[in-house]
């Protein structure tokens, strides 16, 4: 439901009535074929919001070329007809009569069981700062504008130029924390979490978009590269020559003739610098959406002081109203992986709430019985698409049609204005039946866009969906050969001939599926593992929870409070009780995973528990094996009881608050065992933990001196408030460089911390009553698990996700998911969110008793002699060697696990004997295709 | 006994978070209404050039 907004939410969890206001598109979605004529003929130009106003679009528009839905819209605020009463050019030229100026605004009631709010964020508007003069200096741009300047689909096609004179910039500066971490007017107190990383990315990527040398400087307060693999990216950027300067330029002025930017700034030694840049990028922060307050009132949920949705650390996506959940930046500013994770968490929460009604409103599609055409001689039908003027404007489609009729095996050819339109699907199905077509060629666009649609059409017409071949005469032809219609037409003929040659050899492929064992195994009984087990069990699936120790709860039992101040232990203990009494959860303590065979939908494991071996059959697994505090070897740890790790100091504070209160000086040292060779990652939670403990000490005894030795303070997101509070209370932050760490010495009985102060420019010697080491978080040993499941693990020992951005909880092995510290250090709220996300991802598989698979898989041929070369090259470990006996002799031969195989074809390319083929891309089919295209050379 | 709960969910916002929520729920057997204020879904991520650390195209 596009161009729509929620205007009312009545009812309660399980039975909401949501009022949705639908604004008119003025284009009939069913008729629009996205030919683009309306936009071409529209005389009105307006700023293009997709490119941040850096170029123009028309009043009849689509957001961008790949927009979904790919349907035009008329922007009434700018449309000449709506504003002045005449024009209607779009209506006149639309070939399908899709333009409808009579559409009206519509309010509808939608009945749903749950509501999830994911309205995103508002990029900070820097015009409020007159010192940066963003409004008047053309070469001061926001980071989002810069993103569009870099983009190949942006206003300068990816060849970076500055706005003032369209020349390539040679010196570019980034200014961090614009609209973040400030408490001045119009500013936001929180850290936006993502700007450090996107600025580093932009600085690195800039090199790919410029021709000569370019100099990049990032002005920052703290670099916050606290995410997985982020620190490495930052260190690499430094190595690549990007300058990182810890300073905050106060103001910008236009350069000579209004081109470029002049800036004046002061370094940490108090020396003033005057610099000129060709361009300055303002790293703008992420605010709550502009309509956050209105949305919160409509949905009747509470917001925090920054207008983000208020959530609890143990229910990180649940709002104050039951049945309404949030995802993404509306909860707090965050990056893409965290947004995707919370999106799945919100889905899990809704799915658990509505578990009893799962499948009640969805329906499965049914198809007619399929005609077996495998033995029939090819009767090929070719459909040549004009794609409006997209193809026909360059390629002479009539000639291509006539040519296709002459090709062997072709019995029917037709040209369509839009082969993908819904009426054409009906037509294709009719022609398949009328002419007994058994192989289909569509000469149109890329299979990525519409092949699924055509496959469906084939299936509806009663033939196997894999009997289709596409020739991409648009993206690979008309779009790139616009000036050469003759050659483009000749090329289109070559493409069609080649596709027909392959189509003639296409064979139907068997539809594959796996039976899903609707049970789960969760490995690890800490906070993440318990959250995952409870979620899956609450969805109604049986769950086995395996814990290696004799107690559930993990690290959380040793933590006092979350960063929001919630008590942790009572919550965890309540959770342990729920897990242990849940009818759908079987808890195995003192248990070890011994074997794992099978694949998604059907794994079998042997678990050793109490000297006995138990076999467990499950469809999905969640790995939550956790992590531990690194035991330092530095700073006299282990040699003096006053030197403690965070967890030890938490226990001390809990047990002896009076002793802690009596202390005069307490020192914290950050990055102990993190961000240095051997453990190059940032442990994410330690800055917040130290700041939190420092505040507690200051509250116990305001006279106490509390020092935090740090390299950068990384209190990301809303945690920045704690950092502000700590400074307000007088906590002293002393920065050190990794080459010059503070020293801890003993003089008699006294313990001293010695380090340089960057502000006083002098050496500090602090007599410490207690020294707290913010030591790294290290993953628990997962070597055996990795070997059992053949899943991947990173250099730092953390388990690897399937995709760092888009699949942050799926593992490299289908059917396995991860959560908690085994993935990367994270605080309670993020561990819970990730575990809930694993619940949702697992639920997708468990929801069906049979899971369909793609049929394009590798298959052994009778030429296989069992040499096993392909076994090693398969990246998915889908191929194994089997032994069979024929005529009393033993033979070896490979076998493919269809659930693991992704049809990539590496095995086929590796095999020297054509002993393995990939369905739909067999060696014979590819050979015919290549030989045919070579005829045109 | 209370009436049976509805097996449908409304997701408000068609950016990366909203889309992922909608996909997960639809794939798990719930009917999803995805509500988006603009003319198309995709959100801010569709405006990004590349994403770190893989430098993949954001689109």
Description of the structure:
- The complex is a heterodimer of chains A (937) and B (59).
- Chain A has 937 residues and is of the alpha/beta class.
- Chain A has seven domains: 24-104, Alpha-Beta Plaits, CATH 3.30.70; 122-287, 3-Layer(bba) Sandwich (FAD/NAD(P)-binding domain), CATH 3.50.50; 292-357, no CATH class; 380-506, Rossmann fold (3-Layer(aba) Sandwich); 515-626 and 780-851, FAD/NAD(P)-binding domain; 629-777, FAD/NAD(P)-binding domain (3-Layer(bba) Sandwich), CATH 3.50.50; 857-918, 2-Layer Sandwich (Alpha-Beta Plaits).
- Chain A contains 24 helices and 49 strands.
- In chain A, the strands form 17 sheets. Chain A has a five-stranded parallel beta sheet with strand order 10-17-11-12-13. Chain A has a five-stranded parallel beta sheet with strand order 27-26-25-31-44.
- In chain A, helix 14 links the parallel strand 25 and strand 26.
- The model of chain A has no long low-confidence stretch (mean pLDDT 93).
- Chain B has 59 residues and is an alpha+beta fold.
- Chain B has one domain.
- Helix content of chain B is 20%, strand content 24%.
- Chain B has one helix and four strands.
- Chain B has one helix at 16-27; strands spanning 8-12, 31-35, 50-51, 56-57.
- In chain B, the strands form two sheets. A two-stranded parallel ribbon of chain B has the order 1-2. A two-stranded antiparallel sheet of chain B has the order 3-4.
- In chain B, strand 3 and strand 4 form a beta hairpin.
- The longest helix of chain B has 12 residues, at 16-27.
- At the A-B interface, strand 1, strand 2, strand 7, strand 8 and helix 4 of A face strand 1, helix 1, strand 2 and strand 3 of B.
- Strand 8 of chain A pairs parallel with strand 1 (8-12) of chain B, so a sheet runs across the interface.
């Amino acid at each position: 439901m596009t161009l729509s907004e929620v205007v009312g939410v009545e009812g309660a969890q399980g039975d909401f009535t949501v009022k949705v206001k639908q604004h008119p598109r003025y284009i009939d979605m069913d008729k629009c074929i996205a030919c683009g004529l309306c936009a071409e003929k529209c005389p009105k130009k307006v700023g293009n919001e997709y490119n941040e106003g850096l170029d123009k679009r028309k009043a009849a528009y689509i957001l961008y070329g790949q927009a979904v839905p790919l349907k035009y819209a008329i922007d009434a605020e700018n449309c000449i007809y709506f504003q002045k009463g005449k024009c209607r050019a779009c209506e006149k030229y639309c070939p399908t009569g899709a333009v409808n100026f009579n559409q009206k605004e519509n309010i509808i009631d939608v009945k749903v069981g749950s509501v999830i709010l994911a309205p995103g964020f508002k990029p900070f508007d820097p015009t409020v700062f007159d010192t940066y003069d963003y409004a008047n200096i053309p070469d001061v741009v926001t980071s989002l504008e810069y993103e569009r300047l870099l983009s190949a689909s942006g206003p300068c096609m990816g060849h970076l130029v500055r706005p003032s004179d369209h020349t390539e910039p040679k010196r570019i500066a980034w200014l961090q924390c614009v609209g973040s971490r400030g408490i001045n007017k119009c500013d936001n107190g929180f850290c936006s979490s993502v700007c450090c990383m996107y600025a580093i990315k932009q600085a690195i990527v800039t090199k790919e978009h410029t021709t000569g040398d370019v100099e990049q400087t990032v002005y920052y307060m703290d670099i916050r590269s606290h995410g997985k693999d982020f620190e490495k990216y930052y260190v690499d950027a430094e190595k690549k020559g990007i300058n990182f300067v810890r300073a905050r330029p106060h103001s910008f002025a236009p350069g000579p003739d209004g081109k470029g930017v002049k800036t004046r700034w002061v370094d940490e030694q108090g020396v003033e610098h005057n610099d000129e840049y060709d361009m300055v990028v303002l790293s703008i922060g992420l605010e709550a959406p502009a309509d956050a307050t209105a949305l919160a009132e409509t949905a009747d949920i509470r917001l925090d002081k920054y207008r983000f949705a208020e959530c609890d650390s143990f229910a990180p996506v649940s709002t104050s109203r039951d049945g309404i959940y949030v995802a993404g930046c509306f909860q707090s500013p965050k990056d893409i992986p965290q947004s995707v994770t919370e999106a799945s968490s919100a889905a899990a929460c809704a799915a658990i709430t509505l578990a009893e009604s799962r499948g009640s409103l969805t329906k499965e599609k049914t198809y007619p019985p399929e005609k077996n055409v495998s033995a029939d001689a090819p009767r090929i039908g070719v459909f040549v698409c004009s794609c409006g003027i997209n193809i026909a404007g360059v390629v002479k489609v009539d000639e291509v049609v006539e040519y296709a009729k002459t090709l062997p095996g072709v019995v029917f050819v037709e040209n369509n204005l839009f082969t993908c339109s819904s009426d054409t699907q009906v037509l294709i199905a009719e022609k398949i039946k009328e002419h007994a077509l058994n192989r289909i060629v569509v000469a149109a666009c890329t299979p990525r866009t519409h092949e699924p649609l055509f496959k469906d059409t084939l299936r509806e017409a009663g033939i196997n969906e894999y009997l289709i071949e596409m020739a991409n005469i648009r993206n690979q032809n008309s779009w790139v050969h616009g000036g050469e219609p003759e050659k483009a037409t000749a090329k289109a003929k070559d493409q069609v001939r080649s596709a027909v040659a392959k189509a003639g050899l296409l064979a139907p492929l068997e539809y594959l599926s796996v039976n899903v064992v609707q049970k789960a195994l969760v490995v690890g009984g800490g906070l993440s593992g318990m959250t995952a087990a409870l979620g899956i069990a609450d969805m109604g699936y049986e769950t086995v929870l395996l814990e290696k120790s004799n107690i559930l709860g993990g690290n959380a039992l040793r933590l006092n409070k979350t960063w929001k101040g919630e008590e942790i232990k009572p919550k965890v203990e309540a959770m342990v009780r729920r897990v242990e009494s849940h009818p759908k959860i079987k808890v195995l303590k003192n248990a070890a995973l011994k074997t794992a065979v099978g694949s998604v939908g059907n794994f079998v494991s042997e678990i050793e528990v109490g000297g006995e071996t138990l076999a467990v059959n499950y469809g999905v697994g969640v790995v939550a094996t956790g992590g531990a505090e690194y035991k330092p070897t530095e700073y006299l740890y282990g040699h003096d009881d006053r030197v403690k790790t965070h967890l030890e100091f938490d226990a001390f504070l809990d047990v002896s608050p009076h002793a802690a209160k009596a202390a005069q000086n307490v020192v914290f040292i950050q990055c102990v065992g993190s961000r240095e060779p051997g453990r190059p990652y940032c442990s994410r939670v330690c800055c917040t933990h130290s700041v939190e403990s420092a505040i507690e000490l200051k509250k116990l005894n305001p006279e106490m001196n509390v020092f935090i030795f740090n390299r950068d303070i990384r209190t990301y997101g809303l945690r920045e408030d704690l950092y502000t509070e700590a400074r307000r209370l007088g906590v002293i932050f002393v920065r050190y460089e990794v080459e010059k760490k503070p020293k801890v010495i003993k003089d008699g009985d006294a313990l001293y911390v010695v380090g340089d102060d960057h502000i006083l420019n002098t050496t500090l010697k602090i007599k410490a009553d207690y020294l707290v080491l913010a030591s790294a978080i290290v993953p628990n040993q997962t070597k055996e698990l990795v070997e059992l499941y053949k899943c991947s693990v990173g250099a730092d020992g953390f388990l690897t996700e399937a995709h760092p951005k888009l699949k942050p909880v799926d593992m490299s092995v289908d059917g396995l998911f991860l959560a908690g510290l085994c993935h990367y250090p994270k605080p309670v709220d993020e561990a819970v969110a990730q575990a809930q996300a694993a619940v949702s991802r697992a639920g997708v598989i468990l929801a069906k008793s049979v899971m369909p698979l793609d049929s394009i898989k590798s298959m052994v041929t009778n030429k296989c002699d069992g040499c096993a070369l392909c076994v090693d090259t398969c990246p998915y470990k889908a191929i194994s060697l089997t032994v069979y006996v024929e005529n009393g002799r033993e033979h070896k031969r490979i076998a493919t696990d269809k659930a693991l195989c992704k049809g990539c074809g590496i095995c086929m390319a590796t095999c020297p004997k054509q002993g393995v083929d990939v369905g739909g891309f067999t060696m014979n089919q590819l050979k015919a295709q290549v030989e045919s295209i070579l005829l045109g050379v | 006994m209370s009436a049976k709960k509805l097996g449908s969910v409304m997701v408000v916002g068609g950016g990366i978070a909203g889309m992922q929520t909608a996909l997960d729920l639809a794939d798990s057997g719930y009917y999803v209404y995805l509500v988006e204020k603009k003319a198309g879904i995709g959100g801010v991520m569709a405006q990004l050039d590349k994403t770190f650390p893989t430098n993949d195209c954001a689109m």
